[in-house]
Design goal:
Blueprint: H1 3-14, E1 36-40, H2 47-50, H3 57-68, H4 73-79, E2 81-84, H5 103-120, E3 124-127, H6 130-134, H7 142-145, E4 150-153, E5 158-161, H8 179-192, H9 194-199
Parallel strand pairs: 1-2, 1-3, 3-5
Antiparallel strand pairs: 4-5
Helix pairs in contact: 1-5
Length: 200
């Protein structure tokens, strides 16, 4: 695992322009060599201005969750590699809210995540939100996958997946039963994971 290779990967990623309907800039996290990989869905409208992932309302909720288990936002960004299914803002949907990236856009961006798997070989993967979870495993409902550990295998490494719901204010799933209880169960699993304990 090489910081130079990871830094080079991010510079290439920042110059990506494969998707006509996506709105730049490309958003990347800190190029930290970490055993923990967080995968979001796609940046929102404010992340481009702020120049970092989870920089607005959903991020405040997400980092509140991680503070509960020992990492504030500053230390989290320094110690966890933050990726996403898509790295550019998809724009707004016709009926309001952010547009969900389409299959072609997800496919265009998937090789960046594949490269990060190869470079980091994480032992703990935290996908945030159903779109991110679905890139790694089959998911019908959040209640079936949140609050549990799942195996992730590639040809040259294996990891554990501990999914989280999306912290968007547009969803109440993580605020009411069973979502709030499953969220706490997931956070407890993350807190006890050996990879998390090495970065605290």
């Amino acid at each position: 695992m090489s910081f130079e290779a990871l830094h080079r990967h991010q510079r290439q990623l920042e110059n990506c322009s494969r998707c006509d309907d996506m709105r730049g800039p490309v958003i990347v996290g800190t190029p930290v060599l970490s055993p923990v990989l967080l995968i979001g869905q796609a940046p929102g409208s404010k992340e481009g201005q702020m120049g970092k992932p989870f920089a607005w309302t959903a991020g405040r909720t997400l980092f509140k969750w991680f503070r509960q288990i020992g990492l504030d936002e500053v230390r989290f960004r320094q110690r966890v590699y933050m990726a996403a299914v898509c790295r550019c803002f998809p724009g707004k949907a016709g009926g309001g809210g952010d547009r969900v990236p389409n299959a072609r856009e997800i496919a265009n961006c998937s090789h960046w995540l594949d490269r990060e798997f190869d470079l980091l070989k994480p032992t703990l993967i935290i996908p945030v939100g159903k779109l991110a979870i679905a890139q790694l495993m089959a998911v019908d409902t959040l209640a079936e996958v949140i609050g549990r550990k799942h195996e992730f295998k590639r040809k040259d490494f294996s990891a554990e997946i501990i999914p989280l719901p999306h912290p968007s204010g547009a969803s109440a799933w993580h605020k009411t039963p069973p979502g709030n209880h499953l969220l706490q169960a997931a956070l407890s699993l993350i807190a006890a994971h050996p990879a998390w304990r090495t970065i605290r």
